[in-house]
# Entry
Amino acid sequence: MSVKLLMGNEAIALGALRAGVSVTAGYPGTPSTEILETIAKERRDGVYVEWSVNEKAALELAAGASYAGARTLVTMKQVGLNVASDPLMSLAYIGVKGGMVIVVADDPGPISSQTEQDTRTFAKYSKLPCFDPSSPEEAYEMIGDAFELSEELHTPVLFRPTTRMCHATAPIDVAEPAFVGGGVLNAPFHFEKDPKWVIFPRLSVKNHALIEKRNRALSERFSDYNFNAVEGRSETFGIATGGVCYAYVKEALRRLDAEWVKVLKIATPFPFPQRLALDFLDSTECVFVIEELDPVIERELLYVAGAAGRAINIYGKEITENLPASGEYTVELLTEKLAAFLGIAYEPVGGGVPDAPPLPVRPPVLCAGCPHRASFYAVKKAMSGKKAVFCGDIGCYTLGNAQPLDMVDTCLCMGAGITIAQGLSRAEPDRAAFAFVGDSTFFASGITGIVNAVYNKNDMVLIVLDNRITAMTGGQTHPGIGKTLMGEATAALGIPAILRAIGVEPRVVNPLELDNAISAVKAAAWETGVRAVVFEYPCVNVAKPTGSASVNAEKCTGCGLCARELGCPALKVGDKAEIDASLCTGCNLCGQVCPFDAIEVTK
# Structure
């Protein structure tokens, strides 16, 4: 064994390798992305890893491998679970053979997501066991337990880290990957034909009853699980918590010199360890429940207390509203709340010292040189003065909603812009309906919507923003790149060719050739049916800049048109326009916008 400083996601990856995982798949999404990237880097022969086209495909691939006896790992973020929920709900009834762990990284805040979904609630809905680690060290150990439980009970198991745990770091004793026992590397896996692998209503009814019985037994078993615990000695005050909030609570109690307070730590929110919880409640007069997102632990404690006829005061976020119902918690917030609960006088650290000045407002913005800026601007200029609606999507290009571009009118979920545009065109046929989609999202969930549009003879304009990368999550590959996560060369699926196969003849344009880009959009806008413009130019993180722009002060009038029109972070205007050479990529979009030819590019 050796000690390594690991990010939480790295700890999960190395813990899975240690447990003998053989097949891993997922779709990139912050905060989960680094798990598969670490497996790809650290794997040995016999371990397969892939970026799947979407979360549904990843889960179904893993299910097939698990049917044959391989240990499998699937990774996604909380909104990705929505995409994978169809096969997952059925898989909960069918079961697995090799251990299957589904890592769903939740994002309280949300910091980089559309929603604040809580996978603990989904665990109860799907009736699947759920592990909730509170630290990278715990995650490294706990994921092995998740594989063992999955294999023993023949069920998928959910594993729910959150953003702060995923991205925290800790020194961890790392063991070598497993080569013996269940899920061994290079094992002779074999799928045995059996009617149980085919879901039928009669089988589902039978298995449903077995699942309910299993979960009651698992609740009892989880009451003795080593990561579920009662700490402290107070018989008056108790705190119930889990996940990363446990770490926050421990730090808050240390600050308050109140480490004597009794703490119930829940590492398995479903099935809930009811016996352990009842023992905790029996020796406590009042309980403060601290958890981010849904009141999962709070509701379970209320149920346990009510079922046992225990009269106890339980404070939390749902009934007593002692904590915010949404958003991330912090140690500072919980220290203040716990001080009030415990009746301890508390003055925040640095009391009497003036507050630090507020940080400057830094809204998210498209990078300098981002081709999406040029694409949005071309569509905006082409449709100037005309009735149009612009349906956006999830990715870097969601930032097209910001001023001065203001080119995203709707954004729901991945791939939805294409079908929302179809609905708008039906409801308001005299308004041009545009749908933007990125290259990675095109493959993940866009193709189905385009097929729907063609089949149903819709009237819409599809704008594909192909920057040759899954950019927002850090530059992962996708089916259009020609390279797998394992570094192997593969067929690069061409988006224009796929559109032609569906029945749409696209116009393919470089968005940084502004006049051509505007002309292509205008031509598509005046046609009818489903038409497409594919803007192809690589992300600035793929194609490094070869020059930068500069302002000819003699020609520049200081009109500010370049900055007002484009909002590029490399541009600023005072008496004259200025360009930050450290940010500029030399894309020359501003040079094409300037009416005085005052911007020049030096390669």
Q: What stands out?
A: The two ends are 51 Å apart (CA to CA). The chain has a mean pLDDT of 92. The chain has four domains: 2-222, 229-342, 371-536, 548-602.
